[in-house]
Predict the structure.
Amino acid sequence: MPLPFHCPCCGYPGLTAPPYQNLPAPPWGDLGEPPYIARFGAASFEGCDCCGYEFGFDCDAAACGTPRSFQAYRAAWLQTGAPWFSSCRPKPTDWNLARQLVAAGLAASGLR
Ligand SMILES: [Zn+2]
């Protein structure tokens, strides 16, 4: 049973908390450039099990040095074959990346 919070970077519906307090629900399309905390509110600092994006860290210059947009991170992740990130929580057996990206409205920007 998927959890209700989706990753705005890859669309994975398995986050345990909202990634940003005021982020609207998907589908999203282009969410623009960081800093996301300024636009979407406080971050969960959870790392996505699927793509590894850490909300509040990867988007924050003070934390990571070079903030990356969801699109840029996703493009790089897809280019390396979209490896499952978490070593603690295994990839769902019915995981379907294309379906996940489409459902979250991210396919167009992620697969170009
Ligand atoms: Zn993700």
